């Protein structure tokens, strides 16, 4: 029971840190998406998007846990761990963007959004899932190390 409680606490912290880190990114990239002319609505829309980003970071965590059978794999990820973050972040981001834009038509880009040729999806949201997860995992790992040391 103590192990489950510790895991639940760590996953909660991971999710909260992921949402907090992704929210400013979502706000910053909002002007690249169509339909964000209502500034008041952007705050809420970006918050909801950052909740989804938090779930995506949990998915990256799950991929690492499955790959290495260690709950704390991200605390000392090494080159393989960072490669896993990069590869799974890239795969997840490309899949989410492509499905959202081309299948579900949940959002569209303005001309200012740089896009990957051929698959026509935004580069900025792809970069988001490449840059932020390693930072998020590092913050959570540093917190876990401080808690253990206290």
List keywords for this structure.
150 residues; mainly alpha; single chain; 4 helices
Give structural notes.
The chain is an all-alpha fold. Helices cover 74% and strands 3% of the residues. It is built from four helices and two strands, in the order αααββα. The radius of gyration is 16 Å and the shape is globular. It starts with a helix and ends with a helix. The relative contact order is 0.15.
Structural class: mainly alpha
Element-level helix/strand string: HHHEEH
Question: Strand sequence of the main sheet, in spatial order?
Answer: 1-2
Q: What value does the average pLDDT take?
A: 94
**Largest sheet properties:** 2 strands, antiparallel
The global form is globular
Low-confidence stretches: none
Number of strands: 2
Query: Per DSSP, what share of the residues sits in E-state strands of 2 or more residues?
Result: under 5%
Radius of gyration: 16 Å
Tell me the number of helical segments per DSSP (H or I, 4 or more residues long): 4
The amount of helix comes to over 70%
Note the gap between the termini. Answer: 22 Å
């Amino acid at each position: 029971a103590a192990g489950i409680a510790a895991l639940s606490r760590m996953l909660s912290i991971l999710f909260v840190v992921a949402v907090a880190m992704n929210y400013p990114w979502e706000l910053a990239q909002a002007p690249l998406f169509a339909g964000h002319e209502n500034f008041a609505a952007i705050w809420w829309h970006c918050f909801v998007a950052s909740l989804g980003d938090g779930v995506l970071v949990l998915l990256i965590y799950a991929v690492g846990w499955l790959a290495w059978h260690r709950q704390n794999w991200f605390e000392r990820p090494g080159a393989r761990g960072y490669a896993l973050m990069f590869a799974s972040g890239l795969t997840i981001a490309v899949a989410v963007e492509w499905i959202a834009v081309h299948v579900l038509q949940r959002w569209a880009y303005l001309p200012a959004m740089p896009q990957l040729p051929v698959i026509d999806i935004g580069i900025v949201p792809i970069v988001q899932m490449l840059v932020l997860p390693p930072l998020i995992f590092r913050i959570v790992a540093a917190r876990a190390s401080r808690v253990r040391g206290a």
